[in-house]
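2024-03-11 09:14:02 INFO worker-7 job=invfold-0412 stage=load source=structure_tokens
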């Protein structure tokens, strides 16, 4: 059976997407079913992709996307300017892609590279750019102080309170956090992490990511073999499809306005509560520390099965009474969580009503 060029490309891209997403066991059956082709035709497509060097076998004899090209750049961290690095070295990988993708990469790269230049205290910074048939992947690495260690030290020095490395890492979920407020607004990681298809930071054995990606260490190790940067320094990995429809203005419009600036934030509660059960007031205070800098705070309860009364009261009563002009919105709350929130809020309303009377 002979297919038109458009259909052939569609089938090839479908197989590539399945391989990219790690569906190794299901690639064959899903392709045969979704594309209505025979096993013989499927294997012919697989061979064509391999012959074109678009896929390869890994050490476990599973197909993975091959690198179209891959290059490592090393810089002495002295007199560096992120825009010059982008124009001289990075743009060659991006300039033929659609304008929206060019804009995203310019913003993302310059923001993260600037962080490495100004915050890492590293002597050298490494940038690895990899192009696959579907994506551009950029890893910015250094062997400096480590981003989470830097945040931890800053908070302990400015507040006098000890915090864990995990809690230091979680500050990045909120937005507006910076250790150098005179030069930074604390927006770069917040927005960059939301506009990328995949964004993760590895440092001090910890991973920062908005989503629970499987095998986070393996994902970075596939790009940076034998990397020791997961233990020392910082490694930031960004990945974006070459066919992405995303726009920088879309992500900015979700959280900013020309008049109010960066006024809205959104946090996934499961990223702050490892066991999925927020209970105590101290947890709530730690999570909502700094939220008074925003006018709107959205709490995403996805993956949270239940909610402690004290935790809920601290946010929806204590914090809300202290900052009545801040709007707190709950999304993806199950029946148990929404019930607790409603009871806490309604009880507070009744108490206020009795006091007035």
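2024-03-11 09:14:09 INFO worker-7 stage=emit residues=357
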């Amino acid at each position: 059976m002979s297919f038109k060029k458009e259909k052939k490309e569609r089938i090839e891209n479908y197989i590539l997407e399945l391989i990219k997403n790690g569906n190794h066991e299901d690639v064959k059956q899903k392709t045969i079913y979704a594309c209505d082709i025979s096993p013989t035709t499927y294997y012919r497509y697989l061979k064509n992709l391999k012959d074109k060097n678009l896929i390869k076998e890994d050490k476990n004899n599973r197909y993975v996307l091959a690198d179209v090209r891959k290059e490592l750049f090393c810089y002495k961290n002295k007199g560096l300017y992120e825009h010059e690095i982008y124009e001289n070295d990075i743009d060659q990988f991006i300039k033929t892609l659609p304008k929206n993708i060019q804009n995203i990469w310019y913003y993302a790269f310059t923001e993260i590279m600037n962080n490495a230049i100004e915050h890492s205290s590293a002597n050298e910074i490494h940038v690895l750019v990899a192009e696959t048939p579907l994506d551009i992947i950029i890893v910015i690495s250094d062997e400096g102080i480590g981003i989470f260690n830097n945040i931890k030290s800053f908070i302990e020095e400015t507040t006098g309170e000890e915090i864990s490395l995990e809690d230091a890492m979680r500050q990045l979920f909120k937005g507006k956090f910076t250790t150098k407020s005179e030069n930074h607004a604390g927006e770069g990681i917040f927005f960059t992490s939301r506009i990328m298809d995949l964004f993760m930071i590895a440092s001090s054995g910890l991973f920062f990511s908005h989503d629970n990606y499987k095998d986070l260490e393996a994902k970075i190790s596939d790009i940076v073999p034998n990397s020791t940067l997961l233990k020392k320094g910082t490694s930031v990995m960004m990945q974006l499809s070459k066919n992405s429809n995303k726009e920088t203005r879309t992500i900015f419009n979700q959280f900013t306005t020309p008049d109010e600036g960066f006024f809205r934030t959104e946090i996934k509660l499961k990223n702050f509560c490892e066991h999925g059960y927020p209970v105590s007031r101290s947890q709530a205070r730690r999570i909502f520390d700094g939220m008074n800098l925003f006018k709107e705070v959205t709490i995403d309860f996805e993956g949270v099965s239940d909610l402690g009364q004290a935790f809920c009261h601290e946010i929806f009563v204590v914090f809300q009474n202290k900052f009545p002009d801040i709007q707190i919105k709950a999304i993806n709350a199950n029946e148990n969580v929404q019930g607790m929130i409603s009871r806490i809020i309604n009880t507070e309303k009744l108490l206020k009503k009795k006091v007035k009377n």
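2024-03-11 09:14:09 INFO worker-7 stage=report msg="DSSP finds 13 helices and 13 strands in the chain."
2024-03-11 09:14:10 INFO worker-7 job finished
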